[in-house]
């Protein structure tokens, strides 16, 4: 048996190991190694009983030369002599030969059995040395890597990441067909997990998810220019042609919006610090955003998992794989804007660096492949993606949804309306998106047609009610017409009072999208109407759901109930938030302590301060912590801590409620319910 010492200092080993962000990073690195070895089938097997993780592939297998190089990690042997493309004709996904070395962050030792065209080897590795010998007849061509004695907590984290869609989106295969190059099967205790996902362009072009807009962009480092294209279905007022932004002078998105999109009112813009001067430090990249509006298509987007994800050479950066990861601040942008579709739960997309050669680029990826280092090149990249692409998209979206003279140049609007008037008689007018307000003439309503008489309005109202009822039943949410707390006599609350909640299969707790407000919420099996501690939260959630689903007449149109009564909805949201935190405090045995501190019933402000000071105890789950901190950081949250005895001082808006819900409130409440 051949024995080789690991030729890397212990301090360097600990430096790499300490930066591995998650067990999923380790598994992903091993999957990338299999991909580079031309594997077509890859299986990840997790055994929770024996604490073993195995990665099996049908790739080219190890050679004796490549085994010897395992002892000298630092630069991938595959990329030597300007050899940068694997047999898939893609840039090697592996980078510095640290894929196997990262294993030591979750396991003390591992075993590899690998067979190439000629030889078969068994390899044993620990932190100090690597041993190998030839074998025969153990496996077919390919490689089996077995990690032993994996820490139980690491296995739990890995399984949680798998269930949160991160494994489903580790490669670009759901976004670009050219990356459908291997099949991935993940098994937990022998049971294959569902990693199937709809292909994003099928959702868009087949109109399954009801996406209304598509944004495409691409940056060329050689040309120092960014191309940007905004396409909006059934809306000719928006320029669908690509535009080019050159980084040879100062950039002003207000000028871009006026020149290319005839938009004069800007909702949001920010000054540039690193652009255009640092544009030459950013490498080539491309990306696409897909945006949905209204209630339709939510289920398909939820199944896919909304987020803007980052990919390097076909594989995702760990910190950007999380469902609804809002690193582009979409919640912040839409928090105070009533009519915007660019929200975390409405937006799916990716940014891809398809030809990233680390030795040639100034943009640096962290050792554990989870993020870019926050240096000047990354700041310049972020300004391109956020201050240009995202803010252009946000401003265009708001203007397109409103199409009012306050947004567009009058001359441009006149031409637009004249083009509509010239349509042949009887021809259908431009279809309107859900919730979209067009530039209206006298006697027109929000559907773009002449005003209906009173009977027509009644029919329209009935149609909306029927539609809401059907949608509630289909989605399994609290349907209209069911008995609620208000209609029950006496103080007793039964399971039947909340039948809709008991059958809800809408949103699975732990962070799924809340819809615009609280259109989707699940509590059955966790909250019990017979438990007095649960009743307050149940009632608040029931009413929030109804205010999000129910439409009421406002002047000549119909809108969601919480749009008409935002203060009432805000009070309910505050109640649900407070009741959820109290339940969590009781679960962690901290409720009596805060009562003693406050010498009586604590206020919501007292509760928030206590949770913040004792967050590790009260909110042990990382997602809870993130959601709570997100809620605490939202600027327009004054109504939460307003004096409830002076409701006239409470001020909030529908967009503020939506922003807060999307910004962490929904996720926090769902997590608390899920962990009861």
Characterization of this structure:
The protein is of the alpha+beta class. It folds into three domains: 2-192, 2-Layer Sandwich (Heat Shock Protein 90); 200-402, no CATH class; 454-674, no CATH class. Helix content is 34%, strand content 16%. The chain contains 20 helices and 18 strands. A nine-stranded mixed sheet has the order 1-6-5-4-7-3-2-8-9. Strand 10 (211-220) and strand 11 form a beta hairpin. Helix 6 packs across helix 9 (376-402) and helix 15 runs parallel beside helix 20 (654-674). The longest helix is centred in the middle third of the chain and has 27 residues, at 376-402. The radius of gyration is 28 Å and the shape is globular.
Topology record:
Layout: E1 2-5, H1 10-18, H2 23-36, E2 41-47, E3 52-57, H3 64-69, E4 109-115, E5 120-126, E6 129-134, E7 142-148, H4 152-163, E8 183-188, E9 191-192, H5 200-205, E10 211-220, E11 225-232, E12 243-246, H6 253-261, E13 285-292, H7 298-304, E14 307-312, E15 315-316, H8 330-334, E16 347-353, H9 376-402, H10 410-421, H11 454-475, H12 499-502, H13 532-549, E17 551-554, E18 557-560, H14 561-564, H15 566-587, H16 591-598, H17 604-613, H18 615-618, H19 622-633, H20 654-674
Parallel strand pairs: 2-8, 14-16
Antiparallel strand pairs: 1-6, 2-3, 3-7, 4-5, 4-7, 5-6, 8-9, 10-11, 10-13, 11-12, 13-16, 14-15, 17-18
Helix pairs in contact: 6-9, 13-15, 15-17, 15-20, 19-20
């Amino acid at each position: 048996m051949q024995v080789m010492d690991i030729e890397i200092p212990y301090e360097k080993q600990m430096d790499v190991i300490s930066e591995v962000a998650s067990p999923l990073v380790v598994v992903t690195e091993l999957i990338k190694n299999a991909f580079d070895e031309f594997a077509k089938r890859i299986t990840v097997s997790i055994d929770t009983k024996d604490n073993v993780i195995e990665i099996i592939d049908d790739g080219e297998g190890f050679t004796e030369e490549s085994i010897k190089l395992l002892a000298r990690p630092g630069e991938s042997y595959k990329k030597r002599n300007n050899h940068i493309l694997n047999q898939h004709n893609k840039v090697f996904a592996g980078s510095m030969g640290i894929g196997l070395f990262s294993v030591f962050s979750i396991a003390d030792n591992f075993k590899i059995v690998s067979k190439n065209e000629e030889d078969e080897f068994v390899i044993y590795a620990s932190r100090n040395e690597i041993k190998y010998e030839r074998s025969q007849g153990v496996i077919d061509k390919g490689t089996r890597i077995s990690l032993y004695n994996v820490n139980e907590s690491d296995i739990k984290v890995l399984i949680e990441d798998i269930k949160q869609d991160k494994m489903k989106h580790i490669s670009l295969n759901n976004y670009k067909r050219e990356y459908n190059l291997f099949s991935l099967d993940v098994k937990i205790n022998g049971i294959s997990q569902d990693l199937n996902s709809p292909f994003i362009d099928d959702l868009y072009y087949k109109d399954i998810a009801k996406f209304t807009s598509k944004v495409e962009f691409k940056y060329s480092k050689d040309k120092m220019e960014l191309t940007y294209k905004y396409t909006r279905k059934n809306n000719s007022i928006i320029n669908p042609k690509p535009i080019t932004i050159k980084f040879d002078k100062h950039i002003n998105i207000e000028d871009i919006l006026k020149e290319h999109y005839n938009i004069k009112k800007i909702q949001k813009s920010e000054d540039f610090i690193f652009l255009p001067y640092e544009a030459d430090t950013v490498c080539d990249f491309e990306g696409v955003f897909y945006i949905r509006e209204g209630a339709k298509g939510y289920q398909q987007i939820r199944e896919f998992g909304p987020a803007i994800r980052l990919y390097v050479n076909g594989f995702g950066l760990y910190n950007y794989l999380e469902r609804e990861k809002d690193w582009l601040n979409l919640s912040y942008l839409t928090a105070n804007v009533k009519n915007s579709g660019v929200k975390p739960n409405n937006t799916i997309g990716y940014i891809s660096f398809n030809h990233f050669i680390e030795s040639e680029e100034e943009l640096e990826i962290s050792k554990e492949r989870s993020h870019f280092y926050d240096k000047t090149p990354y700041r310049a990249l972020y300004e391109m993606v956020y201050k240009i692409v995202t803010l252009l998209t946000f401003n265009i979206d708001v203007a397109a949804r409103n199409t009012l003279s306050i947004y567009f140049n009058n001359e441009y609007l006149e031409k637009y309306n004249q083009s509509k008037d010239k349509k042949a008689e009887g021809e259908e007018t431009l279809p309107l998106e859900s919730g979209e307000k067009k530039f209206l003439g006298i006697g027109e309503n929000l559907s773009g047609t002449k005003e209906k008489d009173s009977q027509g309005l009644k029919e329209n109202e009935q149609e909306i009610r029927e539609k809401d009822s059907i949608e509630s039943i289909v989605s399994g949410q609290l349907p209209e017409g069911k008995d609620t707390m208000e209609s029950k006599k006496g103080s007793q609350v039964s399971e039947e009072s909340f039948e809709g909640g008991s059958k809800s299969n809408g949103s699975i707790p732990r962070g799924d999208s809340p819809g615009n407000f609280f259109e989707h919420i699940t509590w059955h099996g966790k909250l019990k109407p017979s438990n007095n501690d649960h009743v307050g939260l149940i009632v608040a959630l029931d009413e929030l759901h109804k205010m999000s689903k129910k439409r009421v007449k406002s002047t000549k149109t119909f809108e969601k109930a919480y749009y008409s009564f935002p203060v009432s909805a805000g009070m309910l949201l505050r109640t649900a938030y407070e009741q959820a935190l109290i339940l969590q405090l009781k679960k962690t045995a901290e409720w009596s302590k805060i009562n003693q501190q406050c010498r009586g019933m604590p206020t919501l402000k007292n509760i928030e301060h206590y949770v913040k000071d004792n967050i590790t105890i009260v909110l042990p789950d990382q997602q809870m912590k993130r959601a709570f901190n997100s809620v605490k950081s939202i600027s327009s949250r004054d109504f939460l801590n307003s004096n409830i005895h002076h409701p006239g001082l409470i001020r909030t808006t529908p967009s503020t409620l939506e922003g807060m819900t999307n910004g962490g409130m929904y996720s926090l409440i769902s997590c608390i319910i899920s962990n009861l």
